[in-house]
Amino acid sequence: MDTFNKEEFHPKIIEALLKAEDGLTIEDSLENEMILNMGPQHPATHGVLRLVLRLDGETIVACVPELGYLHRGYEKMAENMSYIEFIPHTDRLDYIAPMCNNVAYCLAVEKLAGITAPPRAQYIRMMVAELSRIASHLVAMGSLAMDVGALTVFLWTLREREKILDIWDLICGARFTNSFVRIGGVANDAYPEVIEKVKWFIGQFDENLDECERLLNTNRIFIQRLEGIGTISKELALDIGMTGPNLRATGVEFDLRRNSPYLFYNEIDFKIPTYTEGDCLARYFIRIDECRESAKIVKQVVDKMPQGEIRLNQPKKVLPEKREIYTKMEELIHDFMIIDSGINPPEGEIYSAVENPKGELGFYLVSKGDGQPWRCKIRSPSFNNLQAIPHLVKGYMISDVVAIVGSIDPIMGEADK
Amino acid sequence: MAITKDEIINSLTEVKPNILFETNEHRDELTIIINKKDILELCKFLKEDIELEFKLLEDIAGVDWARRKNRFSVIYHLFSLRHNFRISVKTDVDECDCSIDSISSVFKVANWQEREVYDMFGISFKNHPDLRRMYMPEEFEYYPLRKEFPLMGIPGSNPIPKK
């Protein structure tokens, strides 16, 4: 953290900081107060988030988040590449849970093109999406605990996450940026050894999660640093556009898996955990509960998974399998056509959203009938969740900012696009 | 409790007869197309009507149509938690009068979303409390998501900050 040097800030940022209270001029406020810059290179801001804080002593009077340090222009890039080429780029949005983003994007393109993946592919998608939800929540819990000083839990949750990365390695050959889901299906089938490993993981997961939870729930410092910190009301949270666990921690039962079911979530039995406190502790508890629910979903998905095709047989829209391209003429032609000119969805525009670990990830796609999307707008959950930070930190101490940012769990890769 | 598309359209014509609109349906999604002067009134109605309760503004997206007469579109995606129903509100903005009313007085979330549209397309939002660029530096002169902006960027347009 640096102390304030007036030349380093753009005048508009200072103007926004002072706007929080009426009737204050810059001379007034700087007499007793201080402006402090936190980030973009700060270990507790989870990436390149920059917060400009206005302080009275150690209490925060106003806060202005500055984004854009990881802006890579994905929306512009999407307009200049085919629908299939953009799948690997969705991995880099929420890089803690890449599988969820693949699922979200492919569902959006399928909706635009008017196709549906076969049931087995959809069940595999559900399985990997829920596993990545667990993986994401484990990192969120661990790094929140680390931010407020309980280091051990981070190592333990990362040990669990490692097992999920091993499953991903087995199912698609990549541990981190997977690009596993395809338009009209998935890349590989879930072979018996994958299913076995998933079953083994789910079998031992609850016990290990209990272990992590015991370590934190009996830690008095951890509880005291989170309880009653960063509270937000139900109405404000909805108005400010929070979604996902952060919204459910305030008591709004909004989960797209239930509210507008996609894939086969309406056939699965699961609860949507909600808390009413809306503070950092509730946001931590809700992630633990969601991990348990996701484990339950994965268990049901594995049991219910039907046999059959993993990719739709529609040569004009869906890439054929590799070994068929090498041996059959028709498939070779179709593969060439799709790669060369794209899948050309009919003219129109759609918005499709799924429930990601961080909240609602939506894609707004506009097609003009070409191989490339005319417009691809990404509605990222972290971007909208971060907007609540000025409301959450107001009136709390600097040390609470670390806990609040950790409990919101922003991923700058998707907030900045 | 489900609500049908016709019910929404009917209640809109009944309660707000002064708002002229067209509807469009694609892949089971309802889009309401209106003139940009009515946007604030319509959003207020959709949010506060006790029958509809579209309380979650999911996203605001801009689109550049390049050669069309009304060059830009601004699209609002709203979700009703009560009915589990999503609608889009679409309105056109011309390049000569490149501005539209801000709805951040109705939805707080619109604050940043409108800033993003302003940053990427240069559409200015009237009565916005804090209209700054969202991602690009304040000194940047271009609007990156306009179709004439090259994919590789403009050399020298985004200088490295001095020490």
Structure description:
The complex is a heterodimer of chains A (417) and B (163). Chain A is α+β, with helices and mostly antiparallel strands. Helices cover 50% and strands 12% of the residues of chain A. Chain A folds into two domains: 102 residues, Enolase-like, domain 1; 243 residues, Cytochrome-c3 Hydrogenase, chain B (Orthogonal Bundle), CATH 1.10.645.10. In chain A, a hairpin with a 4-residue loop joins strand 7 and strand 8. Chain B is α/β, with parallel strands linked by helices. The chains are: A alpha+beta (417), B alpha/beta (163). Chains A and B meet through helix 1, helix 3, helix 10, strand 7 and strand 8 of A and strand 3 and helix 3 of B.
What's the quick description here?
The complex is a heterodimer of chains A (417) and B (163). Chain A has 19 helices and nine strands.
CATH class of the domain at 5-96 in chain B: Alpha Beta
So, the CATH homologous superfamily of the domain at 5-96 in chain B?
NADH:ubiquinone oxidoreductase Nqo5 subunit
Element-level helix/strand string of chain A: EHHEEEHHHHHEEHHHHHHHHEEEHHHH
Read across the widest sheet of chain A, the strand sequence of neighbours is 1-2-3-4
Largest sheet of chain B: 5 strands, mixed
Helix content estimate of chain A: 40-55%
What best-fitting shape of chain B do the alpha-carbon axes yield? Answer: elongated
| SS class of chain A | alpha+beta
The SSE string of chain B, one letter per element, is HEEHEEEEHE
Reported CATH architecture of the domain at 5-96 in chain B: 2-Layer Sandwich
> How many helices of chain B?
3
> Quick one: biggest sheet of chain A?
4 strands, antiparallel
Q: Tell me the number of strands of chain A.
A: 9
Look at the structure and give the CATH class of the largest domain in chain A.
Mainly Alpha
Helical content class of chain B: 10-25%
Assign the CATH architecture of the largest domain in chain A: Orthogonal Bundle
